[in-house]
Amino acid sequence: MDETFKMDHYLRPIIIMRIDEPQNEQQLKKVKNSNETQWKKYEIILEKFHRDAAAAEETLIQFAEPSSTTTNIQTFIITFYSLYTAMTLGWNEERIKSEIDRLAKNERIPKDITDFIEKNTQYFNRAYFYLEKDSYYIDIEMKLLQELKQRKFGQMHNLTSIENYDRQDSLLNDNKTFVKFKIKANEHFSVNRELVEDFNVPVKQEFDYLKDLENTKQDTQKKLQQFRMKAIYQLYSHQNRALKKIFQNDKAHSGVIILPCGAGKTLLGINVALKIKRKTLIICDQVNDVYQWQKSFIKFTEMDKNNLAIILRTQQEVPMAVLGREHIIVITNKDMISSNRKDIKHVTTLEWPLLIMDEVHGLPAEQINAEISKLKANMKIGLTATPYRQDNKIKEIFYKVGPKLHESMIVDLKQMGYVSKIYCVQVYVGMQDMYKNKYEEFRRVNNQFVTNTLYQMNPKKFEVLQSLINIHRARKDKILVFCEKVNKLADTGTLEKFAKLNNCPIISQKVEQTERSAIYKLYQEDKLDVIIFGQIADQGLDLPSANVGIQISFNFKSVRQEFQRMGRIQRKKENQIGEYDCFFYSIVTKGTREVEIQFERQIAVINQGYPYEIISADELKPPQSEADKKIQLDKILDEMQKKVLDTCTSKGDDDREEDGY
Hints:
GO terms for molecular function: 3'-5' DNA helicase activity; ATP binding; DNA binding; hydrolase activity. The protein is α/β, with parallel strands linked by helices. 38% of the residues lie in helices and 21% in strands.
């Protein structure tokens, strides 16, 4: 690596380029086992204390992935996918290298980095993917096609040649010959996967959404008036930036938008639909999300309610005539896409100008992937706050939807006051002697199912939970409790007793939607201040007044779950008291594997710039509890310990709650 710096590097230049690569066989083996295709990391280190840091960050995020952040340093990584984003946003190789050279303290950009940029930008504007008359097509530049054939492009059997034509290259200002191919039905994911992942061809996806609007009749123009925001609402600056990246050069681009929880993903998606002004299909993750989108359309827009259709198992079928309307907004969830109902089957036959996939990180899941591939859409937008998956399949969204078009960083949104400032605390708690002995007994024989159950359902955690509830009730805070084992604890009968002692309801997948809605209403009206949840609250929960999150158990090393749960309390708060207006606690059983599991999540949170403190349960100083309540709590926890120990050896091979995750 070239570490020589420019003579004036103390002044304007504010980034350092470096290459991080495995230094020995052990590190190389670790990288291989992680399924990473890019072994070398091409890093950009930004000095955030520099006066021009904000402008530099806005430039870097166009062609590099944000990796980690501290008070003074922000790290970015250049990858093929980050360059795919840059090219979609109108950047080319020379512009990227020019901006790096302008900002870098390095005397010369390392050759490995310039070679990587050149290699991964050479195919842009040479493959176009689009929908035309109910079929998907891909146009491939002739020279690239010849190269693909030489390199044994395996998807040729899924392509039917239609015609050759000349197309002007806007970057090089010359004509190139393209071959238009029709893609075999339901095989467009496979074609795009091989082009993007195996051959590093950044497939371009544009939709000329203005073309039809110019020719609409006068009566249709009147209907289009409903596609607008109510005058009293407006987008924040980060939402406007995202919208501009979606709509460039009078074309709509397919791709993924990453906004932190609480930063307005739903409102951004609504504005994409308002700009397209055409029939839109929105696929959510859970039932709660469907109702949230419906309420948001009604709250923020002039949309006629008759043009909002919901498809859910609990709702009557939507008539075919309604689904055929030119300006209908259809909202459903991923479970319905595989349904045999007539309305959802009809949805898969229609051509959709716009398809919005909320919580798009779930798209790689096999049960939804095949069904989504049947949908026909001119434009696809994926929304997520948590682009993480434990199976390393997150990159699939970039060829199934499109490249990342925009990402807002949580640190910046906190500074601008668009989201709350969260203070994170990890609380270590021990085990009662008899309980610990049982844990050690099963640990010695490597029975992970039982040991996992024991540390997650540790009754001592509920002592800490009680202390935290007392502390934050004294502050008049609003509390959400996340419990991975809510169903198993409910089976002991002791969780209900704990909830009753604290006058708080329990919500799991078993609770009907009407009952959930009633509980949420009481919470928003300040008639309840604590709710205990299973995994159902990990996403799609809209309780903006909540400002304290406490997780007493969690889904192993799932970084996505960590940020989703933090996101439940991250909505912007009014009347902030103190430097931080929200608190997020993780209660961890010390001396167990749970410490290691939470460490992975902890590092991810710290890398995003959140403050993080680790304390022991003894350091908590809650208000004095009433003597009678303390006696009741001790009885409940004694019973909980006995029943957990009695039932923890019951057979089972899945340690997860069946709770709608």
